[in-house]
Amino acid sequence: MKIILAGFLMAVSLISFPAWGKENLDQQVHELVARVDARYAATKDFRAEFTQETRIEGFETPLQSSGRVFIKKPGRLRWDYLEPSVEHIYVHNDRLEMYVPQHNQILKGNLTMMVATKAPLALLQGAGKLAEHFEVHPTDNGRTGEGGLPLLTLIPKNHGQLGSSSVTRIISEIQPGTYFIRSLALHEVSGNISTFRFTNVKANTGIDDTVFTLNPPEDVVIVEDVLPQG
Description:
By secondary structure, the chain is mainly β. The chain has helices at about 25-40, 120-125, 130-135, 160, and strands at about 45-55, 65-70, 75-85, 85-90, 95-100, 105-110, 135-140, 150-155, 165-175, 180-190, 195-205, 220-225. It has a twelve-stranded mixed β-sheet with strand order 7-8-9-10-11-1-2-3-4-5-6-12. The chain is globular, with a radius of gyration of 17 Å. It comes from Candidatus Nitronereus thalassa.
């Protein structure tokens, strides 16, 4: 499950931003990235629901899944797949535990050893650092999302440090007004595209640390450091 590092979380602060002017597109993108980073830098914890659509090269029907995500600074993340099957992924800094109830098994390993199509975990965990970890460009001659905000094309600056070299770019749509990330589309070298859409976003609600602690059954099988490295 390989991934990339750099940007999701930040809160609904009371900062007010001026309306978009008629600056050139590069300047609009630069300002938008600064606002997204500022939002996420102000967030202590974050929760949302997500849907995932994965289009695999050569297959006509995309894979669909959904669940929820929790993030808390510093360095804690929980990603729950609830449909069509249940998986719970817990991250603390670079350490990862994946619990699959159906198999009564926990897989342990490093976050940087995950594949990108599973979940954009490292990117979400690295909240508020888009400008630091990515080259950011306008998308497809200035395509826009909701509210007319430009879609952002994120190119990892350092594949080895930020995650999987199989991911060539990420297309991100930003939510107007809150400047949270509304969607992420991860494009891989293979042609596969995984799109994540986030709804019911809530920030700074005081998520308890117990949410990020895995408490499996006593008879669960634990497998150490077996997550494949790509």
